[in-house]
Specification:
The complex is a heterodimer. By secondary structure, chain A is an alpha+beta fold. Chain A has one domain. Chain A is built from four helices and three strands; from the N terminus they run ααβββαα. Chain A has a three-stranded antiparallel beta sheet. In chain A, a hairpin with a 4-residue loop joins β2 (68-83) and β3. In chain A, α1 packs antiparallel against α3 and α2 packs antiparallel against α4 (117-144). The longest helix of chain A has 28 residues, at 117-144. By secondary structure, chain B is of the alpha+beta class. Chain B folds into two domains: 9-82, no CATH class; 96-119 and 148-170 and 178-326, no CATH class. In chain B, α2 (34-40) crosses α4. The model of chain B has no long low-confidence stretch (mean pLDDT 92). The chains are: A alpha+beta, B alpha+beta.
């Protein structure tokens, strides 16, 4: 697959910002993204690549930090969106939810525009980030409660 | 001899209808939903994903439902589905050091940095059937405490700092090829990357038996469970169209680091050796078995004599896949009418010759 040649580099979010948004969106439910995106007046756009599902081979490392090996595949869906202003966005997510890939591609395109980067962050990504971090914190707290506290039995008068 | 193989279509159709009916069970009970299988039979789903070699909880739950709980049938269904999808590529290697850990234990160090975290485990349960679960259960909410400092170095990294354990094998170059047994047929000797791929999708029962055999003396490893961890790991995929590695979400993995008997030579100081297990989902028994067998299969590399089945990569890798195994075992029930007729004909002729031989020369036969 070749890079899309007429891609316009928007003046909005950098790759770091885009990756962060992609990560948050990939961890969120499609219904939640759909609902939040309704608060944004979406500009005209099209899908350069309609959503499709396929496989990505997951790779591990021997010993956790050595040479790579193929672990097994996972289902992945992807889509490519383009705004009429030219920005091209990519949506990639684990699973077979093609609507999610479509929404992610659209968000990625919007984040690249100066006009929408703030809106998408404030109205879509920020609430999802908060929800994700709450889920993570709750799970971390439940996990922490199962940590073993060793104590030593003291014998005699020392 | 020609034996008709046509016919039976109607019987087959009716058999499948009967199967669908049996699958549904008593229609007065609620039908089981995929979310229930995924949520309440989660370890079955993990096993099907691991041995089906396809990470997709919903599909694995569907396969279990369709297979009526027959795990190997479900794994077969998942493998068949996999073959219908295009492959986009391979992920960036997963970094298990950055796992969102939900369980992490070590049997080698009590005071391991990050601590011993039991997580959701059957360990220390009394293995008594719980009659309360026969009715609707409403378990207590999980206990909570202050989240931990999540920095959890691997036990092998700690040992590695002092050179007490061998380092992991490093690639010859950054873009070194990674073997893929779904693309090329197996050939022997097989490198460790191919062996690990094979073991990670292998039948749990087979791996368990092989691992167990090493403990009983058939290829002794002298293992310690250096560390077992389970949790979520973020996946990234280099998307050529985007031009950078995109996050895809995260998957659950179980990793086992076995610390094994020393190796040393005239030129190298003795150090522990490693066996590695990495499996989709929460499959602890399997990741431990995998680490034992990974180590035993390194016999030749480590200059050990190959004497036991678990040290023989051709034996292990050729028999570990339950889809292949079930295909070959179960094909015996398909019509073999022609083969059998020819065997029957041969046997009848031999018996006839035998009987004629006895009646013609009874004395000589008896003398022999």
């Amino acid at each position: 697959m070749t890079a899309i040649s007429d891609e316009k580099r928007g003046s909005g979010g950098s790759i770091v910002v885009r990756k962060d948004a992609m990560r948050i969106l990939a961890h969120s439910a499609t219904e939640d993204v759909t609902k939040l995106l309704q608060a944004v007046a979406l500009p005209n756009h099209e899908f350069l690549r309609e959503p499709e599902s396929g496989l990505v081979m997951m790779r591990g490392r021997i010993g956790g930090d050595g040479r790579a090996f193929n672990l097994g595949e996972a289902t992945v869906s992807r889509a490519v969106a383009r705004l009429m202003s030219g920005e091209v966005g990519f949506g990639y997510t684990l699973g077979r939810d093609q609507d999610k890939a479509r929404l992610m591609a659209l968000c990625d395109a919007l984040i690249q525009t100066e006009q929408f980067v703030g809106d998408i962050e404030a109205r879509v990504i920020a609430p999802l980030r908060t929800a994700l971090s709450q889920r993570r914190s709750r799970q971390a707290a439940e996990t922490a409660a199962t940590k073993v506290d060793f104590y030593t039995m003291v014998r005699g008068e020392g | 001899m020609y034996v008709a193989v046509k016919g039976g279509e109607r019987a087959i159709e009716h058999a499948h209808r009967l199967l669908a009916h049996e699958r549904r069970g008593n229609p007065d009970t609620p039908e089981i939903a995929l979310a229930q299988i995924s949520g309440q039979l989660g370890l079955a789903v993990d096993r099907v994903m691991s041995e089906g070699s396809l990470y997709d909880r919903e599909l694995a739950a569907l396969a279990i439902k369709q297979a009526r709980g027959d795990m190997i049938e479900a794994i077969f269904l998942l493998r068949a589905f996999r073959a219908t999808l295009p492959r986009f590529g391979a992920s960036e290697p997963l970094d298990t050091a950055r796992m969102e850990v939900r369980r992490r234990i070590s049997s080698t160090f009590k005071d391991i940095p990050g601590g011993q975290i039991l997580g959701p485990t059957f360990d220390y349960t009394h293995r008594l059937l719980d009659p309360q679960l026969a009715e609707n259960s409403s378990p207590e909410a999980p206990a909570i405490s202050e989240p931990l400092d999540m920095a959890m170095p691997r036990v092998t990294d700690i040992l590695g700092r002092d050179g007490l354990i061998e380092p992991s094998p490093q690639p010859a170059s950054d873009d070194a090829a990674v073997g893929d047994l779904t693309r090329e047929p197996l050939s022997f000797p097989a490198d460790r990357d191919l062996r690990l791929q094979n073991l990670s999708r292998a039948d749990e029962g087979f791996l368990l038996a092989m691992g167990y055999s090493t403990q009983r003396g058939y290829g002794r490893n002298h293992p310690f469970a250096g560390e077992i961890r389970f949790g979520e790991v973020e996946v990234e995929f280099f998307a050529e169209d985007a031009g950078f590695a995109v996050p895809l979400g995260s998957i659950e993995l179980t990793e086992c680091q076995m610390v094994n008997q020393f190796k040393g030579s005239a030129t190298e100081a003795p150090c522990f050796t490693r066996g590695y297990g990495l499996v989709f989902g929460q499959c602890e028994r399997k990741s431990m078995s995998m680490a034992l067998v990974d180590r035993s299969l390194r016999a030749r590399e480590l200059g050990e004599e190959v004497l036991a089945p678990a040290q023989d990569e051709e034996f292990v890798m050729s028999h570990s896949d339950n889809v292949q195994a079930t295909g070959f075992v179960e094909h015996l029930k398909l019509p073999h009418y022609v083969d059998f007729q020819s065997e029957l004909g041969l046997l009848r002729r031999l018996r006839k010759e035998f009987a004629e031989g006895i009646s013609d020369e009874p004395v000589r036969e008896a003398a022999e």
